[in-house]
Amino acid sequence: MSDDTIESEDVDGEGSAENADAVIEPEADLLYGCLTSESRGQAVLHANRDDWFEIATLLFQDGWNMCVDVTAVDYLTYEPARNLPSGITPERFELVASFISHERRDRIRARVQIPELDPTVASLYSIYPGTDHLEREVFDMFGIVFEGHPDLSRILMPETWQGHPLRKDFALGRIPVQFKGTEQEAGQS
Amino acid sequence: MTVTSGQTDGQVGNNVQSGSAATGEEEAVGQLHHLPRRDSVLRMSEVRAAELADGELLDGENSQTMMMNMGPVHPSTHGVLRLMLELDGETVVRSKPVIGYLHTGMEKTGEDLTYLQGPTNVTRMDYASPLFSELAFSLAVEKLIELEIPARATWIRMLMTELNRISSNLLFMATNGMDLGAVSMMIYGWREREEVLRFFQKVTGLRMNHNYIRPGGVAADLPEGWRADVLGLLEMLPPRLEEYDVLMTGQPIWRDRLQGVGVLSPQEALALSTTGPILRSTGIAWDLRRDMPYLAYPEVEFDVLVGTYGDCYDRYAIRLNEIRQSIGIIHQILELMPSGDYRAQDSKVTPPPRARIDESMEALIHHFKIFTEGFKVPEGEVYVAIESPRGELGCYIVSDGGPKPYRMHIRGPSFVNLQTMSHMLAGSSIADAVAIISTVDPILGEVDR
After folding, report:
1. pTM of the model
2. A102 touches chain B (CB under 8 A)
């Protein structure tokens, strides 16, 4: 950041407009090494899946002291063009995490693209242990696997449940109800 | 119990500093080291627990401890929370909250309801404070449409949610009293809450699950005589709260049951993403109404109450005194309540007035379209959070430009706050466990969704 300001001061009249554009543009867009965007006035980071843990570490070190929410979206049947900054490849799943800073009284949201064929991402448990339940819920509902989570088990659905209900290809109300022991009881009667 | 805001901000800062100072050592990055009792979180599948209950022991398992299930229908578990407890005699060693008994896929259902129908769904999540879920949902939708709502609608929303905060905290007073043996408190708490619900019924038509706060404003204007009704409530409550003080706050037995029980440190609370009275009980002044204001909260004065010890007693005292704060806020709302419209007159979102339907074909078509097809919301995604009686209640909505949310997610404060339970239960007796569960005040409808 400081480098850029010095540079723009150094340049003389002629090329300054061009240079300022070239230098300041990426600086304004990059935050914690991520592309950023704005959604209805809310700051959004577009994090790379492979760097997710490092980015979260940077966020934590910079005073984002609480991860309040982790959820996901399955974009399988989303029709309009996805509004992502260029350089981000849209994938089927998207992990959405919200952070707050008590000191700055501010919040920031990070979105991570997660491919359908390899739905894994690093767990933030060791940085933000409060993500324990939230990541389990995302695993339960979307089948996204969090590497490094101490106990990635189902949390809302029964342990023996098949499938991940909030995926868009998990049809609403069109599946036989699965409950433990029902077969046995039906057989007995 | 101390009553000030801001004074504990230093504590938050300290925590952040210690977090960054420790980054030199590989292991200390992050907040995990703030959780000295993390081994008390039981990580065991139900199948394994059932095997142990049948008396089967594998090599190396500690045969001194015993697995016990508390709930899902234990009276102190506030609904259908089940706790798997590993006990050493009378002492809890490890524990795991088992949830999901009330899971009905409300987020999935939300994807199949129009934005107008949405509040009927979310209002059933936190059934003790339904107006808050409606508010979070409506604010998120309005943010997506970038819709301005009239001032009166904003103030009606504030009035109703503050009254709801009172009724929710009264419910806590009642159940907390009952859990700890103050059975008459149960009757008192429900009695006072009923008075508030009676007012809700007058305004919204229903005691609970109101569907009153909707995208665009509220469903109806306040009925005639509402001011006298609210004043009546505000007059009735303070002496009753004094009564609670006599019955509980000062009683040595009550204090013995709560003080020093279920202590949570501020570092633990922050690390576990705790919000609401549980976070404030540890001394961290964080209230979204003050720190990230929504509605017209900057225009009213109130104190953010914080505790000192983070024990059950602080959590009880904060909730009791937040009723008093809400009474103060409502007095100000009564003074500042503007006149005007109770919903936005945006023909895209608001159905036309009933009288117009008889006169105008366009109004009829418009009415029909809004209630069958719903109104369309521009593409985008937003996260909006408000301070519910239990903490940060967030609503995340992704819109694909259609009349139904593409994805609707509610961040339930109880769901996240439940994580503190295992930490607080570590080393306590079963009798104290009841006090701890009670003062976490989870609403299982919101936990399971």
Report:
1. 0.85
2. yes
